[in-house]
Every structure is written in C-alpha cells, then in structure tokens.
Amino acid sequence: MSRTAAPGPPPSAPPPATEPPKRGWPWWLTSLLVLVYLAILFGPALLERGTSAVPYTEFLSKVDQGQVDSVTVDDHGSLSGELRGGAGFTSQVPTALNDASLEPLLRSKNVKITAKTTTTSWVSTLTAFLPFALFLGLMIWIGRRVRRSLADGGGVGGLGGIGGIGRSKAKIIEAQRPTTRFADVAGYEGVKQEVSEVVDFLRDPTRYAAAGAKGPRGVIMIGPPGTGKTLIARAVAGEASVPFLSITGSAFVEMFVGVGASRVRDLFDEARNRAPSIIFIDEIDAVGSRRGPGGFGGHEEREQTLNQLLSEMDGFDQSSGIVVLAATNRPETLDPALLRPGRFDRQVTVPLPNQAERAAILTVHIDGKHLAPDVDLTVVARGTPGFSGADLANLVNEAAINAVRDDRTVLTAADFATARDRVLLGRRDASNALLPEERESVAVHESGHALVAALCEHADPVTKVTILPAGMALGATEQLPEAERRLYREDYLSDLLAVRMGGRAAELVVFGQGSTGAANDLAEATALAVKMVTEFGLSPALGPIGYGTGAHAAPVDPVEAAQRPYSEHTQRTIDQEVARLLAEAEARAVAMLTSRRDALDRLAAQLREQETVDGDAVLAALRETTAAPAR
How far is CA 305 from the centre of its chain? Predict the structure, then answer.
C-alpha cells in the first residue's frame, strides 16, 4: 500500500536572533593548570631520575675508597653529591648516632663539603596549596551554576552531576502528550468508575467547591502485578488532559542521607508549577513501608523520605489541582499514616480480570494480528483463569512467535494452545526423550488423571492430555473450567483431591506400586487438604475453625512453631485429618479406575501412540467401556 506524503506546514519566518551564549571557563586554561600542577608535583622526581640512593654504610665505604668528589649536607642530615666519575647519589645521615667522625673522614679524603639550610620553597607551598585551590574553584563553579539555574527559573534541579543529586527523577509527560484513554483499558469498569472522579475534579474543581465537597487528595491502587495499575493511571492523565509526573518508589531511596526527601520536595514543586497535574508513584511500598522504632543508614534515609512525603501530601493546597496516584501489590507493608484520610483518601482494588474481562483484554492485544476462523477468544479466555493483563499479552505474543516458526502470518487456535502450554508448563524440548518404561508410566499416570476427572461429577472437563515433556513436567492433563468460580463447595474440593490423586491411583492399579512422578500431585493435594482443614472448616474432627492464611500442618522453624495459633494437640489433629482426606481421595480414585480398567488401558495405549489426545478421546474410551460386556 502506497502512501502520499501530507503537505508540510507553510514556511515560517526565520527565528529572531538570539543572544550569543556566554563564554564559560576556557578549556585550554583548565588543561594548562592541570599540566602545571603535574609538572610541579612530579618535576623534581624526574630531574633526580639520574641519581641513586645509597645506604649510609655504603656511602662511608665509597668515601674511604676515595670515590666521592663532593657532598652537600642539609640541616636534616640529607646527603647529596657526586662521585669521581660524575654520577650523582643521595643518602641520609643517621642523626641518632651523633657520628662526629664524618667530617674528619671527608676532609682526609679531600671531599668538597657544602652546607645547605632547608627552607620552604614556593614550589612546595604551591604543591600543598593547589588541591585546596582546585576544591575552592569547584565550589565557586557549582555556586555560579546554582545561581544561573535559579535565575532561569529551573530550580536547583537545573544542575547536572553532583549538583543535581537531589533532583527528582520523575518522567514528566505534558498535557498534550498522553494518548491513553479509558477506552484503551479493557474491562475494569468498576475501577474506571472509581478513578473517574479524579478526572472530574481535575477538569472542573469548582463543582466540588460549590457543593462544599473536597476532591480526592490521593488514590492508591492495590492489586497483583500485571493487572494494569500503571495503564489506568496514564488513562486518568489522558482523560483529564493534565501533565503526568511518573516515578517509582525506589527512585527516592539513595545511600546519601536527605537526598530522598529532597527529591520528594522537588517532585511536588514540579507538580505545583504545572498544576493541575497528576503525580503517579509506582511501587510506593519501596518508600512507604511501616516505620520502625529507629534505624541507621538506608533505613533512616527511607524514613526521612517517607516523613517528607507525608508532610507534602498534607501540606499542598487542596485547590491547587494536584492529585497523587500510587500503586502497590503489597498494601500490608504500608505505613498507616500514609493510608489515613487526608492523604490517600481512596483505595481502589485492581483484581485479576474475570473471564469476560480477559476476552476484552485479548481483543485489545490481537489488534493488528491476523486470526484464523477457528480462534475463539472466549474459549481462550476460559482456559486462562488467573492470568493478568500482562500474562495475556505474553500469551498472544507467544502465539504469534509460534506462527512465525511455521512461516505463517495467521494465528490459529493451535498456536494459542501451544502458547498456553509454553506459559504454564515451560518450553517443550524434543531432545528430552523418555525411556520406554518411563513413557508407559507417564501414559498410565496421565490417563488416571483424565479418567478420574471425567468420572467426577463436579470436576472441570478435560480438554487435553499429553505425555510430551515440557519444562519440569513429563506430561500434563489440562482441564477447562466451564465458568468462572469465586466460591468452591466441599463436593468440588473433594473431586479436585480425587483428580490430584488419580495419577498415583492409576500407577497402583496397573503396576501395583507408585513412583516419583506423583511428587508434584501429592504436594498440591496436601496443600489443598491443609486449607480444607485449617482455613475452610471442612474437617468434622476440628470443627468450624479457621486459622487463616499461612497455617500449615508441619512447621519446621522453631520460631514459626511458637507463633502458630494452635496447640500441639490441635497440630496432631490437623495432621490426622489431612492424612484422612488424602487417603480417602486415593481410595476413591483407585476404586474408579479399577472398575474401568479397560478404559484406562485403552487410553494409555492411545497416548503412547499419539502422544497427545483431546477430551473427546477420554469420553470415547469411557463410552466404549460402558458398552462392553462385563468380564
């Protein structure tokens, strides 16, 4: 497709003549001063390069042998002179020995003796004073830069290098530049409604003043990583058409005491100069963590920075049109003074997207890409529960990369399935071949998972079973939820435990023994059983008691064991209940697979032959077994 060039703007009048730049300190003069200083510092040593230092005993030996022609002695006992051949030498008289025989010895050997009084020369004085002069000149230069920057209205931050260490590192995006709007943020209608009041306040603050209401002073967005908190903040700036100052919390923290507080002051000064404006602080937990009883070094510097941030948020005029947005995924670590009303008035939760929002996000990320007719974004969204917006962007990119590997420009449903496996399981390595007995064991193991999932009434449907190794997994059974669940009933969790134990149960049915291939399944099943007992109140022996997140069956750290909210007797009961749930789930899975042994063998053989089958093959194996006569 060819494009015609748009006509350019009409030629404008030449710019007016500007004042020639002021001449600064000549570079050649600086170089000359450096060369003079080096010559003064190292010149004497270079001039004396032909002389050699000799010990005092060797000097006496040369005098006794008549090799010394002349000697110069100063009042500190330093000797210098020439030998008969013209070579120079230096030595030192040990004054502590009070050697009075040196002068008679020199006179007896007809050595010319010269006395020298040591005085402070202008060279040594200049050598000692020059570093201080250079330092003083550097301070004068910095002072002139500061005055020039203040005169130009740029503040102290106009300095570079050493003078700009306290300058805010915020990225400033002017009002004309933000192009992100709420329409560019897929989903999150509730979140956009929450922050839209910020836009209204910045656009027309007089509306709030007329009603006697105050606009939001600060809004903090809380959510997992990759959910689009920064994108929403940029959309707020784009909708309000105001300058947007973006900075991360770690940019305030420095090893120098007071630098972080200086950067906070400079940041708010920049915002006041551009008001109305938005300040966005990403990862605010880096600077806003809870203050302790005191500290030194970096801890003290972080607290000073936080104190300055608190005073700035309390100090700026409400009518100035400055709103502070912040984002974090660790709200529990923030200082309570930062979250009180008057600073961050509003907390907005940005959760992981639901199924409908994931489909909308995928629609945004496939813009500009060619999709095959078999691609259903609703199915892709249904198969990616727990994915954030960043994860979905990565999924679409991996699908595009997979299409490029096959020399295609059109993305198919198989590309998205391969990308999902790549994200969840890892890269598939063709060289990671299994031994024949391992291949058979993995086929039986995955067939057990798939058949138990198909037989359990409340389990999610099976969409794919594979024995191709990917990442750390030797095989995988993928289930596709029919709907987005927020609550899980006990019957669903019991079926989930049985599915987790289905692989080990199949090995017990076919081989009569387990293997290490069930290690990950056992870990996941144990974690689920612990939550059912300690958090969900689903244990008859323990009763309706919840110990909260973090309670687990076997704390090994003595400190952690001392802080657990239950006794040793309760811990024993928890262990027994967890073991009971796992044993019942395994027995249930074994019973299911034993009664359908033909389906297990048929599906395992099909996996060994084809390596990957879909959910229809699992259901077909069960239907053929049901229709077959009982043996």
Answer: 21
